[in-house]
Amino acid sequence: MAIKTILVSQPKPEGKKSPYFDLAEKYGLKIDFRSFIHVDGIGAQEFRAQKIDLAAHTAVILTSKTAVDHFFRIAEEMRFEVPDSMKYFCISEAVAYYLQKYVAYRKRKIFFGKQTIVDLVDVLKKHKKETFLLPCTDRLRDNIPLTLESNNLKFTKAVLYRTVASDLSDLEDVYYDMLVFYSPGGIESLLKNFPNFKQNDTVIAAFGPTTANAIVKNNLRLDLHAPQPNAPSMTGAIELFVKEKS
Known about the structure:
CATH topology of the largest domain: Rossmann fold
Largest sheet: 6 strands, mixed
Helix content: 25-40%
Shape: elongated
CATH class of the largest domain: Alpha Beta
CATH architecture of the largest domain: 3-Layer(aba) Sandwich
Structural class: alpha/beta
């Protein structure tokens, strides 16, 4: 079956440049974007129940821009003035630069890796004496705390926000040739919103092994999986699939 309509379970890319826009134009596709999940911050009362003393920590490990936002939000709600001496260890340069929203970047001790927690380990190990706070979601991937533990780093996991299913009821009678997922949470949201979902001829695409596993575990058919050796990106894998089916 030829692919003509695609729904990507993520927010629409900002700006005018995106491989998805190029793909749509090149093959005459209708590509829509819709976030299947969203983030809810936990309140001060629920945070207090975790019995975490923010003042006891000398450094923060930030794995996303969302983690940055919620760390400073909860600090404000707890009336905790983040000291100028606080060190920030960011998973990527983009997250590090995002800190400018809250702190004077050049006046703070900010470190960053390339893209994963493993990339950041060498920098963290040089600061082993620090007591790290790890602001995170309730669905934190195991590899992050396990990596910190295996390198004997002293850290506290602080759940500051939740990943929850978005309301997709307006899509009930809308059909797409392909659904694209980037996280297990997206699959959970699909089935929560549409418990009687029947895949039939709908192509389901997944990025990453955990997303692919979630599709299979929920008895859905995994038609397209990225990254692939010949297509490291999701859009590259979709393009190969569209060409094959056209």
